[in-house]
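Figure 2 data, in text form.
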Amino acid sequence: MSNTEFWSHPLVETAGYFSTVVLCLIVSMVVFEIVTKYRCWHEIKKGNLSVAFATGGKIFGVANIFRYSIEQHNTLPQMIGWGLFGFTLLIFAYVLFEFLTPMFNVDEEIEKDNRSVGFISMIISVGLSFVIGASIS
């Protein structure tokens, strides 16, 4: 098997995409941890279901965006670039959600375990990930 055949083998490509997306997902979760006013994993450990909803939506959203990026781009750098661009749009959507709800603070409500706000945050992340994914494909 030549070097080119090895790198283009479906198992090797899948492992490469998987490991790259996991690394990007970790980076995105660190960025979300910085953007939010609460500590995601600390709150989840305490049993805060609202934070679990919001964080789960973010994880799903980022993974879904990268799914579209993998499907539509031929090289690893293109896939990473478009995936990170989509992630940036997802962060923008989170900030926009906070801005469009002036009657309450989204981060504070999620930290207080307001499950309605946590659930809506999850749905926004999931729903917009499909829109973002379709637009980058």
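Caption note: The chain has one domain: 3-136.
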